[in-house]
Every structure is written in C-alpha cells, then in structure tokens.
Amino acid sequence: MKTMLFFDDHRLFGRDGLSRRYGEVKLESSFSDGYTSTDHPAAWCFKTDDGTYKLLYMAQGTTYRHLKLFCCVSNDGINFTPANLAIEGTQFDHEIPFPALDAPGCEIATVYEDKNASDPSLRYRMLFARYDDAKLRCEGNIYSSADLINWTLCEGSWSDGTEPIASLFYNEYTKKYTSVLRPFWGIRRIGYKTSENMSDFGEFKNCLISDACDAPLDELYGMYAFEYDGMFIGAIQIYSDLHGEYNAKFHNGSIYTQLAYSYDGEYWMRSLRTPFISGKDRNPSRPLAWTSGSIRLDDGDLLIYGTSSEYEHGPAFRILGTGRLDVYRVRKDGFVALCTEKGESGSLILREQLWKSGEMHLNLKAAKATVAVRCTDHDPGNCLSISEPIEGFTHEDCVPFSGDSKDWIPTWNGERSMKDLVGRTIVIEIRITDGEIYSMRGDFIDLYNTEAVRYRILGKLPNDRS
Prior knowledge:
- This protein is mainly β.
- The protein has helices spanning 315-318, 449-458; strands spanning 2-5, 12-16, 19-22, 25-31, 43-47, 53-60, 67-74, 81-82, 107-113, 124-132, 137-145, 152-153, 167-171, 176-181, 190-195, 205-208, 219-228, 231-240, 254-262, 268-270, 277-278, 288-296, 302-309, 324-330, 336-339, 345-350, 353-375, 388-389, 401-408, 425-433, 436-446.
- The strands form six sheets. Strands 1, 2, 3, 25, 26, 27, 28, 29, 30 and 31 form a ten-stranded antiparallel beta sheet that branches.
- A hairpin with a 5-residue loop joins strand 22 (288-296) and strand 23 (302-309).
C-alpha cells in the first residue's frame, strides 16, 4: 500500500478552495520524574517485546551539564512512571547504569532501534557526543544494546566533531544508514552522512539551512528525522526570538518545531514556516520545546516525544527544576492537511496514476465528500493526460461521506469500487465540503504523461527503462 501525503502539489493537477495547514497536534501528557530537570533535547521511546514502552531521557541532577541517562516505563506510551533499575551506588533509584554518561559536557544525540540488525546485541544504537577538552571537539561515539539498559561501546564514529541534535534511520532506497546532523560543534545547518555497516560514516553533505523565508535571525538548530511509509519526515528545531545580546546566539531565544520532508532521505525540502509544535502556544508559556523521538501506535497515530522548559535557551540549562517530558499525539498521516474554509467547498485533482489493485483509502474530515474517477486510456497516445468520465464513477454516482475517518473507502452506486479500475490509467478528483483531507492510500503507481503513454503502448513502467 502506497501513501500520498500533501506536503506539496507536485502530484496534483488541480487544487481549488483548499489551503495547506499543519495537522492538529495534541499534548497528551507532561510529567517530571521528581528528581531531575529535562531541559535538553533528549527523549526516545520504544515498544519492547513484552508490549510495554520504555522512554529513555537525558537529564541533569543538581550540577550544570552533568547529564545522565534515565528511564521511564508505560503501558500505553503516554503515561509514564520511573523505572526501578536500581544498582548499588547510583544517585537515584531509577537511574540506568551507564557510566559513560557520568561526565560533564556529554550528550546523547539520538537512540535508534535497528530492525535490520542480525545480532540481538545491536538492536538499539545510541549516537553519543563526548566533549574532548584537549581537541575542542565532540567525539561521535556509537553504543549498542539489546535491552535499552546495558550499553556497549562499538567501533567507529557517527560524527567528526558535531553535537546533538542528530538522528538516525535506515534508508531502504540507498540501503544505507543515514545520520542527520550538523557539520561541527556550534554550526547550525543540517546535513547527513551515510554508512553501510553502522560503523564509520562518510562525507558530510549539506541538505538544509535557514533562508530568506525564515523569520529574522532564525536558525536550524537540528532535525529529528524518521522514515514514514516510503518517505521521510523531519522535525526541525527552529532557534528563534533571538535578542542578539553580546553578539552571541546562546543567552536567550526559543525553540520550536517545523516540518521538513524528503522522498529519498537525502534531498530535503522545508514545509510550512509556522510552528508544528511550540511550547509558547501552551499555558503557561514554555519557550524551549524540543522534539527528539516518536513511535507509531497500532491505530496509526504518531506519538512524538520531547522536553521543554519555562526558561529560554541558555538560562534553561543553568536554572534547573522546570524541565519536563512531553508527549504529543499526531493523527495518522496528520502532518499537513488541505483544508476548506468553514462552510465552504474545495477540490483536488490528482495527477495520472495506474491503479494496480484493491481499494482507495482516504483520511479526512468533512461535512460531505465525494470522489470521481476519469480515465486517460481512451487514447493510448494521450500525451497530455486529457481525461474522460468513466460511466458510474462520477461525483453524482459516489456514495457521499460525512464525518471523521482515517480510512474512508469510496464506493459508487451499483456496488462499483476501485477494484473495477485495476490496470487502467486514471485521474482522481476529490471534493470536500467544510473539511480537510490528510492522505490517500492505495496500490497505485504515480505516472507522468509520457510515462503513462509508454505504459499504454509498450507496457513499460517508470522503473523499466528497457
């Protein structure tokens, strides 16, 4: 099943009466363990084999920059309690015994579950930045674990001097691990490195930097990136609201999240320049709001994990006690939506597709929605994708939908469905009234006009260049 999200219009023929907005993000829970202050970007959650959730987070006790790793547990991924992982000599009864973190100036960049690992001891990977006073750089260490509790230092390095925020994912297109990171300590632009064996990562390549569409002085502080149903989503941490005192970008300013996206995991594009997640939108205001991890629930919704503080950047790391852990819920496929104005109607027309099998699945809210399907195979040499109506598949024939569904399957009078159009090249039009649409799923192949002609005449698909 393929997913079409509406980050941009490159797969649309038409869009009328619809504006693009971020989807709704709900703050599900906020909590503190009562012992530490979680002001740094450090929260990663995993569903373990027994069905419970472990949330790893990096926090400070009473000493500035003396960060340690801790763990909370949950049955639903939302409501957490400190894990009882006591060992002799630890400061807190729920502290994970990971002495490599017991040093000033060290931070976790990300924690990643490697579902391709053949060795159970390599199931979880931790990218770790250790500050080297002599070299004035951060060493990029890699640790591995089978259980998220006991960690072992591995050979190799994920960076050559950078610091958090970073992320890690496996790219099915390139068959390589990709680390998204900054080029060096203090440099706030985003790029990536790749590795075939999760050991030494290669050359840094730039992919994102602040530009003229950003607010004055805004910087890209880092990006948490992850694979999502054949594409890649990036949660960019935007460093904003800078006052410019002492000519230093550190002593103040807020952090909030915007989105980026990629179709191949290497070439990235910015999305809307408005907050997707922002602590400043909450009451009381929390100007520092980081996002660093996520997990998919069984119903398809996404939980995003982060940390926040009542203080701005700089003071938040020194005035301890206001940091907390935050859990946000994003609707399935709910990153962006194409929305009508209240009470108004809108439509979108998708570019040409070859329908391969099964039904169409739409994720939307609407007072009314209908779908029409037109064909482009009435003329095999139809180079302009000019479409004609298909009898029985008009808007008038469509059984209308009303309500809120993550999985509406359109049907037409006479028990017609998309299964009747398998093998045909088609154009789909979706109309909604007083609503918003998030995604379309199905077994289809996107075609451009010449690709469709080549398929109809020669039977060749885009990945077949013979």
